[in-house]
Each structure stands twice: as C-alpha cells, then as structure tokens.
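Dear colleagues,

As part of the handover before I leave the project, I'm documenting each prediction I ran so the next person doesn't have to rerun anything. This entry is a single chain, and its sequence is reproduced below.
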Amino acid sequence: MKRDKKAFYADMALVMVTMAWGMSNMLMDLCLEELEPMTLNAYRFLGAFVLIAAVMFKKMRNVNRETVKASAILSVLIFAVYALNTYGLQYTSVSNAGFLIAMSVLFTPIVSIFVTKKMPEKKLFFIAAACTVGIGLMTLDSQMRMAFGDILCLLCAVVCGFYLVFNEIFVKRDEIDAFQAGVLELGFAGIWFAISAFVLETPVLPQSGKIWGCLLFLMLFSTGFAFIAQSVAQQYTDASRVGVIYTLEPVFSRLAARLVLGEMLIPRAYVGEVILVVSMIAMELDLGKLFIRKTDQK
C-alpha cells in the first residue's frame, strides 16, 4: 500500500476519532451531574485500559522499555489535557469549550515549529485560519466573553498541541509499538486521575442508568478506540494535519446536541459547518497537482 493511501486512511480514522470526541463534551457534561472531574476521568481511562488490554491481551505481550517510557511521558500530557477540559466544562458552556479546545489547530503548527524545527505545509496555515473562522461562527456568542472556564479550555488547547506533536515524534520511532503505547497511555493516565481523585475528591459510583450509559460510551469509544486509533494513525500523517482534522469536533458535538437534545443552530452556525467541511476537503486534495493536470490536458 502506498504511503499516500495509508495517510488518507489514517486521516479518515482520525475523523472517526473526532466524531467520538465531538460527542464526549456533551456526555461529560451529563456525567458531571453525579461525578466529580477526577473521578469521572479515572473511571473513563482505567475502564478503557482494562477492557482493551483484556480483549487485545496477545498484542500487549512483550512490551519493550522504550514503549513504556514513551507512554508514561505522553500520559502526563493526556492527564493535563483532560483535567483542564473537564474542569473547564464546569465553568463555561459546552459550545465555548468545543471552540476553545479546537483552537489546538492553531497551536499545533506553532509547537511543531519550535519542537521539530520543521515547517508544516504552507496551505495548512490558511486552512487552520479558515477552520478557526468556521468554529467561531458555530460557537461564539456576540459578547465574546472569556470566563475562567474559557481560560482553562484555552490552556487545554495549548497542551493538546504539545501532546499531538510529541505523540507524532514517539509513534514514528521504530522501537516503539504504536498500539501498545496507545493502550498503556490509557492505563498511566487512569492511575494519575485515580490518585488525584482520592486526594482531591470523594469517589462515588454513578447513581443512574443514564450516567452509566454515558460513562460506558466515554470508556469504549471516546477513550479506548479514540486513543489507540490516534496513536496508530499518527504513524502515517503529521501533527498539523491531525490538528486540522480535530476542528471537526464542534460539528459532531453540535450534531449530537441536535439529535439528542433537539438543539437548533442559528443560521451563521451552518455557515461555520460548511467552512469546516470545505477546509477538510481542501486539506485532503492536492490542489496544485489538480491544477497542473488540467493545464497539461489543455
């Protein structure tokens, strides 16, 4: 299989990841009715780790030291991302959280420049700018306020940029198994959240079937599937492209709210969705090659 084709499939897998994450903000907001932030994330990450490690036991044998070391480092960034995200949801709206966290599309190329000393494709900066406009049309209100929760979510986007860049660096090393790293990251992050929950909170179990259902979805799809798919997919694409793909998260978040909660969008939000979809198509197509081919045909 050619690398270009692998990169395309990797990007499509990341779109599925983004879909699961787009639903997660709404589900987390519901879970916070009964669970505290660290407790929620401890259940989410430890549950995902146990389920996937049990099902994929054969693939988890013979883990080398480099894979464990990389997973432990990346798990610290994951802990910071989800702690900031979950606390941010307590102090701002789901829509604002979706917009600000998706700002990682702008922070990722900047982090990549300083860490890898490598400039990403020039068109990604223009696409990132277009995506930012699209997300703003979908989520920001007319007052453009930034509350404490907004600041936390913005910091979450910055840390997410670091995570995407370092994850790309680690999973592309030959000595690191991307699948094993993805599973171990869940376990390490779950441990950090569990320790924090016992120190800062009073852990309890969910009290209703609705919250149990939300928590199971978060475990299986928004955490287990998402992190492993991301770790494997980033072997075949780069962090800047991943950041752009993740700007679709507010689209899926809005769609989930519309279907589950019956939430209707204001007209400008539909314009924002169109901008994001067009940006995704532009990212996948090599417009320069298409233009050259058409010129050659003439």
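The CA atoms of residues 123 and 283 lie 8 Å apart. The chain has one domain: 25-297.

All the best with the project,
I.
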